[in-house]
Amino acid sequence: MWIASVANIDWPSRTGLTPAAQQAEYRGWLDLAKQRRMNAVVVQIRPTADAFWPSTYEPWSQWLTGTQGGNPGYDPLAFMVAEAHARNLEFHAWFNPYRVANHTDLSKLAASHPARKNPGWAVAYNGQLYYNPGIPAVRAFVQTAMMDAVNRYDIDAVHWDDYFYPYPGSGGGFPDQATFAQYGAGFSNIGDWRRNNVNLLVQEMSAKIRAVKPWVKLGVSPFGIWRNAGTDPLGSRTTGLQSYDAIYADTRRWVKQGWIDYIAPQIYWHIGHPSADYAELVRWWSETVTGTNVQLLVGQATYRAGASGQDAAWQDPAELTDHLTLNRAYPRIVGDIHFSAKDVRADRIGAVSRAATDHYRRPALAPAGVGGAAPAAPNLTSAVRGSGGVTLNWQRGATGSTAAYAVYRLPGDGAVDPCDLADGRNLLGTVRASGSTGTFTDATAAAGSTYRYLVTGLDRLHHESPASNARVVTGTGGTFSVIVDNATAGGFTAAATWGTSSYLPARYGANYRFAEPQAVSDPAWFSATLPAAGSYRVEVWYPADPGYNSATPYLVATAGGTVTARVDQRAGGGQWRVLGTYDLTAGTRQVVGVSRWTSTTGYVVADAVRITRL
């Protein structure tokens, strides 16, 4: 998830907030990322040749206090990295290499700004100020300014977006002909010279990062089209703007040369777009990274989903989730980045919820990078059931460098099949390493269930160790039974099309969810961990009302397939009502759903379910 600071797009929401208010907002963005089961944030810390840390090279960013050079009263970058790592989220530090200001007046910059001290470095173009990429001293300076953050802070990646040379404006080309005359020896074509300037920036920055912190990745999120096949047979079957020619970014070469660690093209078009089809571009980028060590992520236009003025395709709640489904056909795609945080939170038309339900139901490990080595397996010293769940304690592996741990839970007892750890449904979560020991509490453990727990270690580049020894925790006795409420953490998922209400007192818990009936596949799901395959009684709770639906479809994911049972929610509420007895399989999964697909009128309600082993 991108968190943009320029123009206060995401964070801080406005200038002049107190440090406490800024910090609370930022924690909220991290909590959103964890809620959506993301594993990294990409945070803009150098938006306009300024800094979100006490840099000795550039002034404090104006987007913090409203005044460039104004001290915010704390170190935002140190705070942001620490908070992200406390949640075991990777922190990708997002820099803009060359943008100086969103205006053209040097006198508006802080007196200490390098562009004011070196006015010959700056170029006014299309209403903005840029550092001139063709001046070698500029290239060296921006690298030094960015490396200051790399050297001083525990970031996980340096991230650049699509701004190198500026996009073409209406007032003619970028005015650097004099710079070309001064520094362009050996180049007969100004375009080739500009591309070489950007290539040098990428190549040199990569070498500098790898020399001091080889675990810090260099990632770029370029414009989604390199070149069109009509221009270059190596290009994609598209007809849009070409970043190679328009902004002099030879992204394909950066991949082939291995100068970057990951590339996240901004494929901001819908499936079937006439000029830039999403399906064609993921195919092209997948082929481009094949045979290299460069990881491929996809920049997703989450900001388009449900937004006013966007193409009709983006008004379909399924468009975004269909992108992620299509990605599965290309194993080289290892993840997605969503632009931007405020759009993930807005969840217009329920598109983000739909994608999360379809693809992000469980935690996921970040993809392993090149270099590094898996640490030794940890030693799981204890697993103890208490009032708050099952608490695990372990010791770090004896060898290797452990940066984090992955915690797994398997239903039942018996031998562990190694394939069980490849099943994402068994991953409970991850924990950042600190010291020689670690701990994790499984608050979702059902009291009557027997589980096996295992832990693995991860190095800084996410290489995973062998599993620890297994610890078995038995049920507390009696018949297994679990209640899942619509507010149970990790136990309920529903799109934004489902409202929340606490109006009726006969509800279970603090509130319940409701939705209008409609001929769409938009169920709310209750998930549970069942200890063993067998026969289970399923009961449902809802607050009844004469205006509710007379034939609400409940879906039960049985061992033989999904079964539908219909309930008249106009009556019989405020108590457990038996839906039926079903053969269910063991494991953690969606068990009971409430569907909106019914021809009868009145709200359908999802409140709580109880599942009892017979």
Give the end-to-end Cα distance, rounded to a whole number of Å: 44 Å
Work out the strand percent. Answer: 25-35%
How many beta strands in the DSSP annotation?
Answer: 30
Alpha-beta classification: alpha+beta
Average pLDDT over all residues: 95
Tell me, what's the shape? globular
Number of helices: 13
Largest sheet: 8 strands, parallel
Estimate the helix proportion, in percent: 10-25%
| Oligomerization state | single chain
Low-confidence stretches: none
* Strand order of the biggest β-sheet: 1-2-3-7-8-9-10-11
What gyration radius follows from the Cα positions, in whole Å?
27 Å
What features would you highlight for this structure?
single chain; five-stranded antiparallel β-sheet; signal; globular; Family 10 glycosylhydrolase; alpha+beta; 26% strand; eight-stranded parallel β-sheet; Ig-like_fold; CBD-like_Golvesin-Xly; 30 strands; 614 residues; GH
Write the layout of secondary structure elements.
Blueprint: E1 2-3, H1 19-35, E2 40-46, H2 62-65, H3 76-86, E3 90-95, E4 99-101, H4 114-117, E5 122-125, E6 128-131, H5 136-152, E7 157-160, H6 177-183, H7 190-212, E8 217-220, H8 243-246, H9 251-257, E9 262-263, H10 278-289, E10 295-300, H11 318-327, E11 333-338, H12 341-346, H13 351-359, E12 379-386, E13 389-395, E14 404-411, E15 427-432, E16 437-442, E17 451-458, E18 471-473, E19 481-485, E20 492-493, E21 499-501, E22 512-515, E23 524-530, E24 534-541, E25 552-558, E26 561-567, E27 577-584, E28 587-594, E29 604-606, E30 608-613
Parallel strand pairs: 1-2, 2-3, 3-7, 7-8, 8-9, 9-10, 10-11
Antiparallel strand pairs: 4-6, 5-6, 12-13, 13-16, 14-15, 14-17, 17-18, 19-30, 20-23, 21-22, 22-29, 23-28, 24-27, 24-30, 25-26, 25-28
